[in-house]
Write a structure and sequence with these properties.
Blueprint (H helix, E strand, L loop, with lengths): L14 E4 L3 H12 L12 H9 L3 H13 L2 H8 L7 H10 L2 H8 L8 H8 L3 H10 L6 H10 L2 H20 L3 H16 L7 H8 L13 E7 L7 E5 L2 E7 L2 H4 L9 H10 L2 H12 L4 H8 L3 H13 L3 E4 L2 E4 L1 H16 L1
Parallel strand pairs: 1-2, 2-4
Antiparallel strand pairs: 3-4, 5-6
Length: 347
């Protein structure tokens, strides 16, 4: 049956919030150096990470090995979301004084409002709840093992580990560059926050993250954007109660705020991607509608491998994405491109 829509109510969306802190950078650095499978894909070269390891104490290296085995970087991030901490001392005190049941509950991943009682029962040691929570998260590469770890670990040892690894990394890696890092993070924080009045929430998330399209979800009322330098070029996505979190890579301008002529790296990628006749044709085809690889190939009259190469460049520039096995133009990104260039020229 056809429906006549007389409602004037707009589709609801989420609110945007921003935070930045050296403590986030500290925890994400711990996550980065212990994420062996992707360390070669990070912007900082492998030599950088090897040099760091060579200069760390034996005690801290032992703590980092423990992080890699048990994914306790996740615990650090979960705890950092509980309140705004002024410094490392306040964070360490918070961990030390947190009741055992609260420490376990906070450390366990948020998997939905409907599973909060399950999460609480798992934190209290209920074996069937732990098993069910592991089953609910079996599609995640590390959640089941991590849940089992949090629910069975000696909490006195966990507290000391978290305090030691966070404090050790801060002293060895963050402290010497703390002033420079603070300026970079604050610069990016302020740059993105100033765009709140110019962009709708979905466009702002896409711009800040360099192309992540995040549509509103029923259970999510807020998106929290946290700038980070150490994990560039990756965006890291997480869920906490009623909030989607993006730890997003800061832009080139924030790394060199004194250089007025430094363009945003994502802006450069987009214009490079558009600087080709064949790719411009593909963009126009996708502006009209979503298309399969074969449909695009037939229209531009190029070899399929050549078209695939052009599409790969457009996807790397976050101008095109794949939706239900078809290529789709990210129209929000295209619409904002001229404004991005204007912002760069006027800065």
């Amino acid at each position: 049956m056809d429906i006549l829509n007389f409602t004037s109510r707009k589709r609801s969306t989420y609110q945007i919030q921003f935070e930045y802190s050296l403590l986030w950078e500290c925890a994400l650095g711990i996550a980065a150096i212990t994420n062996t499978p992707i360390i070669n894909t990070l912007e900082k070269p492998l030599e950088y990470w090897n040099t760091i390891k060579e200069n760390l104490s034996t005690a801290l290296l032992k703590e980092l090995d423990y992080v890699e085995k048990n994914n306790t970087w996740k615990t650090l991030l979960q705890l950092l979301h509980k309140k705004k901490f002024n410094d490392l001392t306040e964070f360490s005190t918070y961990i030390h004084e947190l009741p055992e049941s609260d420490l376990k509950f906070i450390s366990l991943p948020f998997i939905g409002h409907e599973f909060q009682e399950l999460r609480n029962n798992a934190a209290l040691g209920n074996v069937s709840a732990i098993t069910e929570m592991k089953n609910k998260t079996k599609d995640n590469p590390f959640f089941p093992q991590y849940i089992d770890y949090i629910c069975t670990v000696n909490l006195s040892y966990l507290r000391e580990h978290l305090i030691n690894v966070m404090g050790g990394w801060y002293e060895a890696v963050i402290k010497k560059d703390s002033e420079e890092l603070s300026i970079m993070l604050r610069t990016d924080f302020e740059m993105k926050k100033n765009m709140l009045e110019k962009l709708d929430p979905e466009a702002l998330v896409e711009w800040a993250t360099g192309g992540v399209s995040y549509k509103p979800e029923p259970s999510v009322s807020k998106v929290l954007l946290i700038p980070q330098y150490i994990y560039r070029p990756w965006n890291i996505e997480a869920d906490i109660e009623d909030t989607k979190v993006f730890y997003y890579p800061i832009s080139n301008e924030s790394i060199s705020p004194e250089d007025r002529y430094m363009p945003n790296n994502f802006l450069v990628l987009k214009y490079k991607a558009l600087g080709d006749e064949a790719r411009m044709k593909i963009v126009k085809l996708l502006f009209e509608q979503e298309r399969t690889l074969q449909e695009i190939t037939d229209r531009v009259k190029l070899g399929k491998s050549t078209v695939h190469h052009h599409l790969k460049i457009l996807r790397s520039a976050k101008l095109v994405e794949i939706v239900d096995s078809k290529y789709s133009l990210k129209k929000l990104t295209i619409r904002f491109l001229a404004e991005e260039l204007n912002l760069y020229l006027k800065k």
